[in-house]
Amino acid sequence: MNNAVLVAWQPRMLSLLRFMSGLLLLQHGCLKLLDFPANHPPAVVFGNLMWFGGLIELVCGVLLAVGLFTRPAAFLASGFTAVAYFMVHFSRGIYPILNGGELAALYSFVFLFLVFAGPGPLSVDAKRGAE
Questions:
Q1: Mean pLDDT, the chain, as a whole number?
Q2: What DSSP letter does each residue of 72-119 carry, written as one string?
Q3: Is 63 exposed, middle or buried (CB count within 10 Å of its CB: 0-12, 13-18, 19+)?
Q4: pTM greater than 0.90 (yes/no)
Q5: Which of 3, 107, 109, 124 has the most CB atoms less than 10 A away?
Q6: How confident is the model at residue 47 (pLDDT cuts 50, 70, 90)?
Q7: DSSP secondary-structure letter at 36?
Q8: Distance between first and last Cα of the chain
Q9: CA torsion angle for 34, 35, 39, 44 (degrees, to 10)?
């Protein structure tokens, strides 16, 4: 494939990465706080650590999906997912593939990348000139 074509599409692919990672984070918050798309009562108790985690996932997921306040939302999400990795998964072993933490680790680095790369052109931030 022509390198010029790939370079031309890079900003749109950044927007797509931000949008999809935001939606994927959002689903974790929806499951914890809104019991969606599951069909059972949420196991999260208002005000506990898991509830606050769900709130961060919900709010940051929405902000990242639409590309609003992208850099601060990505920074918070990156830190949150890193903490989640070390609090939940790392105690089960050092290897993410064995301790079940590969998704949390990947989220953390994707969101850290978005802190530096920004939202991309297809975002609310870009429309309001705050990219």
A1: 94
A2: HHHHHHHHHHHHHIIIIIGGG-S-HHHHT-HHHHHHHHHHHHHHHH--
A3: buried
A4: yes
A5: 107
A6: confident
A7: -
A8: 29
A9: -130
